[in-house]
Amino acid sequence: MTVKIRNIDLGTGLPKIAVPNVGSNEAEILTSAKEIAQAKPDLMEWRIDYYKSGIEDLTKLTATAKKLRELVGELPILVTFRTKNEGGVLPLTEDKYLELVETVIINRLGDAVDIELFHDENRVKHLVQLAHDYNVVVIMSNHDFEKVPAQDVIEFRLKKMATLGADIPKLACMPQSAGDVLRLLSATDSVHKVLEQPIITMAMGDLGKVSRIAGQVFGSCLSFGAVGKSSAPGQLSIRDLREAEKFLELK
Ligand SMILES: O=C1C[C@@](O)(C(=O)O)C[C@@H](O)[C@@H]1O
């Protein structure tokens, strides 16, 4: 199965490329968006946890989203609030996080929304349903910045996300050894073969770079590359990422 976000199809061909926008005020966000659009990624990820004043004032957040859309035209936008526990920059209570995701969906601030797996299950399910009602694609996520979990744990989490209704399950983790990277890749390969939904995985840091370029081989449909400032350790520049993916293309 492939998942369509505006004009792109995830889950077929080379992994698509997302570039995070980590601007911390409206001017920065719009300037980065221009630079990102020029680099022609498949998708822009708007990391709203970097935008403190927008999170504190949702009218402002919505106004910026409108300007962003005007600026990038048809470029698909994924809106992500990454919680502090999972590598984000801004602390937010559980309630505020869930309310924020709801605002993102109801106001259609993007074409897709990131919903983290590890929150109250019923509320997560409700958000997934709401997103689908509003025609917003759900990328469900989990991040471990310390380690790579056991293979069955990785597989369980990705499958659990699918059960909760995620259109695309995603897992990012931090390897401490080459063996850790192999385990993530092996879990990716097994889950990719049995799940209907396309998945996204990556190992972070330098050791993990190989996992960011080899998604087509192991079964990950999207990779994050940087234009300017990156949003996680080990991200390559969009230019290097695109070239490296091409070297490994399955023809
Ligand atoms: O989930 C991810 C993946 C990521 O953490 C990475 O390792 O590239 C970068 C984040 O911006 C994004 O939300």
Automatic annotation (TrEMBL):
It is an enzyme of class 4 (lyase). 3-dehydroquinate binds at E45, W46, R47, R82, R212, S231, Q235. The keyword Flavoprotein does not apply. SUPFAM superfamilies: Aldolase (SSF51569). Its EC number is 4.2.1.10. It holds the Pfam family DHquinase_I. It catalyses: 3-dehydroquinate = 3-dehydroshikimate + H2O. InterPro entries: 3-dehydroquinate_DH_AS (IPR018508), Aldolase_TIM (IPR013785), DHquinase_I (IPR001381), Type-I_3-dehydroquinase (IPR050146). Pathway: Metabolic intermediate biosynthesis; chorismate biosynthesis; chorismate from D-erythrose 4-phosphate and phosphoenolpyruvate: step 3/7. Keywords: Amino-acid biosynthesis, Aromatic amino acid biosynthesis, Lyase, Schiff base. It comes from the Bacteria. The active site is at H143, K170. One of its GO terms (biological process) is aromatic amino acid family biosynthetic process. Homodimer. Belongs to the type-I 3-dehydroquinase family. This is 3-dehydroquinate dehydratase. It comes from Lactobacillus psittaci DSM 15354.
